[in-house]
């Protein structure tokens, strides 16, 4: 780690649904930077007074930045952590961004048993999680990896079903898909690079405890 790396605490935030709440929580804990917003063209935003640097990444890439130490810590969904399987410390469940990973199919294709989906195609942004789910169920399927708008796949015949995240359920409903199995729940997590956690322990620990107090007081409400 260079002395400049040591001087700053680098925090990675993902573009997308978790960004706003994550930035808000960090600001409430005293970590903010002028111009930090999801749509900023500037991808590194620094607060020189606090010696804090924010980087904004694509959601699926965030654990990679933290694993390699390009960011010391980050906030990311448990779903992405399970899919990406990177070597990072998971420090805290931030308890927001609750969603569930489900198997969904067009209404007309809904079956009683998982075995009835054997040999069908599943479109997903989460091929590892989908693979594991069907493997555990002993059902052989073909996984098709996509990068977004997964609900489109069954409509145009690219796949019979999808494994995707559901938050409000609106997207499934609007695309006439029904949930046929729940795979797991996910919330936002605070993660840290293993080396940074040791080298910058005091700073990371202070931030973690500030966020923990916030999470505990929200849960107690
Ligand atoms: C996620 C997810 C669903 C949608 C679910 O997609 O993949 O498409 O949100 O939310 P809802 O239950 O509240 O409707 P996201 O908006 O992150 O973008 P994507 O289509 O690029 O995956």
Estimate the strand proportion. 25-35%
Mean pLDDT: 95
Helix-strand pattern: HEHEEHEHEEEHEHEHEEHH
What's the total count of β strands?
A: 11
Main β sheet profile: 6 strands, mixed
- What is the domain total for the residues? 2
> What oligomerization state is this entry in?
single chain
CATH superfamily of the largest domain: Periplasmic binding protein-like II
Give the radius of gyration. 19 Å
| Ligand set | 1-O-pyrophosphono-5-O-phosphono-alpha-D-ribofuranose
* Backbone structural class: alpha/beta
Name of the CATH class of the largest domain: Alpha Beta
Overview of this structure, please?
The protein has 221 residues and is α/β, with parallel strands linked by helices. It has 2 domains: 3-97 and 187-220, D-Maltodextrin-Binding Protein, domain 2 (3-Layer(aba) Sandwich), CATH 3.40.190.10; 99-185, 3-Layer(aba) Sandwich (D-Maltodextrin-Binding Protein, domain 2), CATH 3.40.190.10. It has helices spanning 3-7, 19-28, 62-67, 78-84, 127-137, 152-155, 170-174, 194-199, 201-220; strands at 9-14, 44-47, 52-57, 73-77, 89-93, 99-106, 121-124, 142-145, 161-166, 177-186, 188-192. Strands 2-3-1-4-11-5 form a 6-stranded mixed β-sheet. The longest helix is centred in the last third of the chain and has 20 residues, at 201-220. 34% of the residues are buried. The site of 1-O-pyrophosphono-5-O-phosphono-alpha-D-ribofuranose (PRP) has 15 residues, from strand 9 and helix 7.
